[in-house]
Amino acid sequence: MSSASSSSSATEAETLRRSRILKSKLYLDVPLSKVPVIYSASYDIAFLGIEELHPFDSSKWGRVCRFLISDGALGKYCIIEPLEASNEDLLVVHSESYLKSLKNSANVASIVEVPPVALFPNSLVQEKVLYPFRNQVGGTILAAKLAKERGWAVNVGGGFHHCSGEKGGGFCAYADISLCIHYAFVRLNISRVMIIDLDAHQGNGHELDFADDRRVYTLDMYNPGIYPFDYEARRYIDQKVEVMSGTTTDEYLKKLDEALKVAASMFDPELVVYNAGTDILDGDPLGRLKISSDGIANRDEKVFRFARERTIPIVMLTSGGYMKSSARVIADSMINLSKKCLIDMGKNAT
User: Fold this and answer.
1) Would the pTM of this model clear 0.90, i.e. be above it?
2) Contacts of 249 (CB under 8 A, 6+ apart)
3) Distance of alpha carbon 201 from the chain centroid
4) CATH number for the domain that contains residue 115
5) Is residue 21 part of a domain?
6) Is the bond into 228 cis (omega within 30 degrees of 0)?
7) Residue 344 pLDDT > 60, yes or no?
8) Has residue 345 been placed in a domain?
9) How many domains, in total, are found in the chain?
10) Of 265, 245, 244, 158, which Cα lies nearest the Cα of 205?
11) Quick one: which of 277, 293, 184 has its CA closest to 227?
12) Which of 77, 85, 296, 299 has the smallest number of Cβ neighbours within 10 A?
């Protein structure tokens, strides 16, 4: 293909992407009585008990909200429910062939790492597994709009950072981070986005999607000795901070302080997308780091302070975390952010 044909094809693809984004219904108008904390009961996955075969706590998202409500930190009716991302929404980043591959239960089983899923009719897999994920994608996309309007937003889900436009994996079926950013480019007139990915695992999905896109700056702090071992994607990380198995809280927070200083000097974002995985928690079987629950609250506070002091809108996604205690840790961290006046969860905030 000639360079002219290639350029024309790229322009057509970009025009189609823009058209899909402008037609989307995911950017809801939300009343000010609601707090920019996004969650729907449809996030939680219950699939005849086989979800227990994966170490991820697939009811984590609902438990986070129940803790916040029972602690008096968040009013039950203040939470924002997103819409499900449609096929047209997903095509903004995903190829037709990738979305078609999800109509094969064996492919979905491989992505979510639960082999028995392959044995079920795809209609059931769509309803019990992919529908919850699509709702979380809708939440991540909406979060950017709310962050622009209110200064911050938390999607109590999302953060599927192992999925790119062409490939899923690691319990990530849709590329919600990439989708969120493309929507922000078009609908929010934003042209510089910083991804701060502090999940224990490398965020290879968004790294591949934005490999040659200078509008996106990636700070990824991850354990190089665990999944996904994606060496190609590592080449596209703007700021790579590797933390080895066994890294303790003090060492981790010191590295984060240094990394945020460098990031501030290297890039001036108009939006921060913060992937706040709790799989760095001490005892997490997959993350293999030794960060205390207070250390996670401190980490989140540092990232929010980085954005809020610079008046940069920030989106937080909860991402990975493979212990039942993760939900309590996330809730406690959000309460700490509220106490430090970095977020405002309303008149009920403690």
Assistant:
1) yes
2) 290, 291, 292, 294, 295, 298
3) 12
4) 3.40.800.20
5) yes
6) yes
7) yes
8) no
9) 1
10) 158
11) 277
12) 77
Has residue 350 been placed in a domain?
no
Nearest to 273 by CA among 188, 349, 168: 188
Evaluate the CA torsion angle 308, 311, 317, 322 in order and state its sign.
negative
In single-letter form, the type of residue at position 264 comes to A
Domain-located, residue 174: yes
Structural tokens at position 239: 């700021």
Task: Give the relative orientation of helices 3-23 and 176-187 as an angle to the nearest 10 degrees.
Answer: 90
24 pLDDT more than 50: yes
In the numeric block, which tokens belong to residue 7? 């350029």
Q: What is the 3-state secondary structure (H, E, C) of 27-58?
A: CCCCCCCCCCEECCHHHCCCCCCHHHHCCCCC
Containing structural domain, residue 53: 3-339
Which of 267, 349, 285 is CA-nearest to residue 321?
285
**Is residue 162 annotated as a catalytic residue, yes or no?**
yes
Q: What is the pLDDT of residues 139-173, one digit of tens each?
A: 999 999 999 999 999 999 999 999 999 999 999 99
Point out which residues pair with 194 in neighbouring strands. Answer: 217, 272
Q: Where are the beta strands (DSSP E) in the chain?
A: 37-38, 152-155, 193-197, 216-222, 239-242, 271-275, 314-317
Which amino acid makes up residue 239?
Q
Report whether 280 contacts 240 (CB < 8 A).
no
Write down the catalytic residue from 54, 94, 161, 162. Answer: 162
